[in-house]
Amino acid sequence: MKKKSLGFFVLMIGALASCLTNDVVNPKVQFKNDTTSISQFLKDNNLPATKTPQGVWYSFDTEGFGIYPVLTDSIRISYRAKLIPSMAQVDSSSGLTVLLSSVISGWQNALPRFPTGSKGKLYIPSGLAFGEALHYNIPPNSNLLYEITLISVKGSHYTSDTTAINSYINLISDSLSTNKITLRRDVSGIRYSYDQLYNSATPELSKSINVSYTGKVLNSKTFFAKVADTTLVLKDQITAWKLIMPKITVGTNVTIYVPSGYGYGSEFAPRQTVGNSNIVYQIKLNKVY
Q1: Which residues span the domain enclosing 79?
Q2: Fewer CB within 10 Å of terminal CB in the chain, N or C?
Q3: pLDDT in tens, 93-110
């Protein structure tokens, strides 16, 4: 009896091992297959998109002028979710308010790259969406396309950024006063100052600009950028530049105190900086093309 019992358990263990081998999805294999499938879908439909290091693709229909969200923020978003590649709609909302830290990994990876007000698309592998779980109308192991509008962002991070900037400005207030420099505040809350406005051209977002500039992290003495006579397309620059530079005329020197949400957010830190850095840019506008 003991031998039969032992044999029975060996057979059961073998059967269980077979089930694990044949039926349980290997996450690494699934992710590789998902990535290949989404990449082919984008290629077949001639859809340009940028891939995050985590493996989510995203693209903009319209890029907004608001702040970048961080994981601790509450976001309000409208969306439609579709299966890839069938494009069957499986979910939608005209205005969902949720903590960014509480949503699927694909949103957490991609949305910190979206300025508030942006409309765009997220292409999310199943492992960064709902995985093997059946989620309402979404089948297991589904790759998803989200068509999204980031309506608003609310949280304490922007407040802490502006508090830090205001503290820094208080430290240099005597120097500003001595040099008769008046600080201004954009409707977005961004602080900036300039030497004088000349009777000359101001740039539109679609224009190219020639600038000389320096950039440093707030309270740092080290420049991470020091550039002379470079030509840039204004619409491709950080949000703070897009908001402030159209107010500036050729020949003017401007200083912009950039909260991280209007700069590089948590995802696009330039060299010698880290994510969520507040930045001070000093820019001379040389030409507008």
Answers
A1: 25-154
A2: N
A3: 999 999 999 999 999 999
